[in-house]
């Protein structure tokens, strides 16, 4: 019935119509933009959300709620994207994509009507965010594959460029939209997705067709279970590594963290071995024999980790230091941080489609390589400006970082998708999405840990000196200075006054003079106190990010020249040089 109805459609909704590819581009770009905006929209709006459900996320017993609100969506999309990409190859990419829109819309409605408060309210939101991530994974996994099916090889770079830049820009647009909506009502943060999800579901059902090659097979249950268990254990262990353990400021020596990381790696190794043996694997790991696919994904993972780390560090830098020093209240900093990061988003939007289009003609290698080299240069440049920077310089550097990321993202994804057989596009898109989403998740654990390591060397002494100079008793100052830096980082990240969030529960502010209390909780004390330790942390973080970008650039260089997988009749040829292709 559905296929008959599809054949009867006319106009641009017909798969034979020359403009059908633009219909596919408009729909998949909406899907990617919606899913990635929802991945980051809660980062800025978490203070309003936790206030709305009457929960203090900085209390020790509530930190797990905070971490899962931050990482739950990203973790699920990292784990399930490849599964749904493979299912798209088997059952139809458009079909899985359409189901994803429906699940996304239903979960968005459920998030708006959270009936609980406190811990139960947080669990409701976390649970439905996980469900929403299932829908997002279906969309994310099949979006690029649908575009690759719809566009001829010589035009894919432009199309995937627009699609990928929408996806990456969505992570930063989410910050702005979240800040704006959180100022109105925390439920609006989730409500905004509902009309777009519903419209997208209708639009995709009406307009999209199965035009790609479909592979036969059955679900690889063992592979799915091994991959999910291994990746969840690995990413969860790394994320919980930022939690203090014993006398350490981080949790990397926690037996549970080590067990999760080591166990996750072991299970993923077993997954690879199993996939090499089974007849119909979840993912054909032999695709990594293709240089463009293998090195492109390595570069994509490193770029994603660096981009995620940059996002978190710039938010803390702006919200915890720069904006308060320039007269913004802590409560307003989440919104304004999104505004002041606009040059980064603009850089993406400018360079992505251009580099994608040019890569159709000249190949991806030099655009992807040059983009990551530019990103590395901007990381180093950000170390050279003062913590209380001139915004014009900061805007230029973040704009150039966005340009570099845009130069890399579109050509890299196009080269990966051009390199794989048509019947493997869903799984290949899913694997690439898994690397990207896993990189975002890894960036939380890696860069927060690096920043904490930098702060731990100098922040305790600086904190003790600042507190005692403003009337805090020596024993209390010693206790506060010994508090792991992760608490101050999360407070700044969430738009709370870090010193007030530490001293108020201890009752210290009530024992001080009004002058000392006002000084300690004012807008300049904490930014001035943390500036030097924060810069020590930034040195570690941004040098690591620059090195990752340079390694990613080297991987891009190893991708080889322009490469398009060619299918000759029924014979699948992997690894042959590119040819000029006619419209498919």
Provide a brief overview of the structure.
It contains 21 helices and two strands.
Question: What tags apply to this protein structure?
Answer:
584 residues, mainly alpha, 74% helix, disordered N terminus, disordered C terminus
Topology, please?
Blueprint: H1 2-8, H2 20-52, H3 63-91, H4 93-112, H5 118-150, H6 156-184, H7 188-191, H8 193-207, H9 221-240, H10 255-277, H11 291-325, H12 333-340, H13 342-362, H14 365-384, H15 391-418, H16 425-468, H17 474-481, H18 486-494, H19 498-503, H20 514-520, H21 525-557, E1 566-568, E2 571-573
Antiparallel strand pairs: 1-2
Helix pairs in contact: 2-3, 2-5, 2-6, 2-8, 3-4, 3-5, 3-9, 3-16, 4-5, 4-8, 5-6, 5-16, 6-12, 6-13, 6-15, 9-10, 9-16, 11-12, 11-15, 11-16, 11-18, 11-21, 13-15, 14-15, 14-21, 16-17, 16-21
Work out the helix count: 21
Alpha carbon gap, first and last residue? 26 Å
Largest β-sheet summary: 2 strands, antiparallel
DSSP strand content: under 5%
Question: What is the typical, i.e. mean, pLDDT?
Answer: 83
Order of helices and strands: HHHHHHHHHHHHHHHHHHHHHEE
């Amino acid at each position: 019935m559905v296929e008959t109805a599809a054949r009867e459609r006319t106009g641009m909704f017909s798969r034979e119509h020359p403009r059908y590819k633009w219909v596919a581009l408009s729909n998949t770009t909406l899907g990617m933009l919606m899913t990635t905006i929802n991945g980051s929209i809660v980062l800025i709006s978490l203070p309003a959300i936790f206030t709305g459900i009457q929960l203090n996320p900085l209390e020790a017993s509530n930190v797990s709620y905070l971490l899962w609100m931050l990482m739950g969506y990203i973790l699920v999309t990292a784990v399930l994207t490849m599964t749904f990409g493979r299912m798209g190859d088997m059952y139809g990419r458009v079909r899985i994509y359409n189901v994803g829109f429906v699940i996304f819309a239903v979960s968005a409605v459920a998030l708006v009507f959270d009936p609980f408060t406190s811990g139960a309210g947080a669990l409701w939101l976390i649970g439905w965010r996980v469900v929403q991530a299932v829908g997002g994974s279906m969309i994310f996994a099949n979006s690029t594959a649908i575009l690759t099916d719809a566009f001829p090889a010589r035009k894919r770079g432009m199309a995937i460029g627009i699609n990928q830049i929408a996806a990456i820009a969505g992570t930063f647009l989410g910050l702005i939209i979240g800040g704006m909506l959180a100022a109105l009502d925390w439920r609006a943060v989730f409500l905004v997705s509902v009309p777009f999800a519903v419209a997208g579901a209708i639009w995709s059902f009406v307009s999209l067709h199965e035009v790609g090659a479909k592979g036969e097979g059955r679900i690889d249950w063992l592979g799915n279970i091994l991959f999910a268990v291994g990746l969840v254990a690995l990413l969860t262990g790394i994320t919980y590594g930022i939690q203090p353990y014993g006398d350490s400021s981080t949790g990397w020596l926690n037996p549970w963290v080590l067990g999760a990381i080591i166990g996750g790696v072991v299970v993923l190794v077993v997954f690879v071995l199993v996939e090499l043996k089974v007849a119909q694997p979840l993912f054909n790991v032999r695709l990594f024999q293709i240089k463009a696919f293998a090195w492109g994904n390595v570069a994509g993972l490193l770029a994603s980790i660096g981009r995620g780390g940059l996002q978190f560090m710039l938010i803390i830098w702006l919200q915890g230091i720069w904006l308060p020093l320039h007269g913004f209240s802590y409560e307003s900093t989440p919104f304004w941080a999104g505004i002041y990061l606009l040059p980064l988003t603009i850089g993406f939007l400018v360079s992505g489609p251009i580099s994608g289009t040019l890569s159709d003609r000249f190949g991806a290698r030099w655009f992807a390589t040059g983009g990551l080299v530019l990103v590395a240069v901007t990381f180093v440049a950000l170390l050279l400006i003062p913590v209380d920077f001139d915004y014009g310089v900061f805007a230029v550097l973040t704009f150039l970082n966005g340009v570099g990321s845009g130069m890399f993202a579109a050509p890299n994804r196009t080269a990966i998708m051009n390199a794989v057989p048509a019947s493997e596009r869903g799984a290949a898109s899913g694997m690439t999405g898994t690397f990207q989403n896993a990189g975002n998740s890894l960036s939380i654990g890696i860069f927060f840990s690096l920043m904490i390591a930098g702060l731990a060397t100098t922040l305790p002494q600086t904190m003790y000196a600042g507190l005692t100079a403003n009337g805090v008793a020596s024993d209390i100052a010693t206790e506060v200075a010994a508090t792991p830096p992760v608490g101050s980082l999360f407070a700044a990240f969430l738009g709370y006054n870090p010193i007030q969030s530490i001293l108020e529960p201890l009752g210290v502010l009530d024992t001080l003079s009004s002058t000392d209390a006002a000084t300690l909780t004012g807008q300049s004390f904490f930014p001035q106190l943390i500036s030097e330790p924060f810069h020590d942390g930034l040195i570690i973080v941004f040098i690591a990010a620059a090195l990752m970008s340079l390694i990613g650039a080297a991987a891009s260089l190893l991708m080889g020249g322009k490469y398009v997988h060619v299918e000759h009749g029924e014979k699948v040829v992997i690894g042959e040089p590119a040819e000029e292709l006619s419209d498919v």
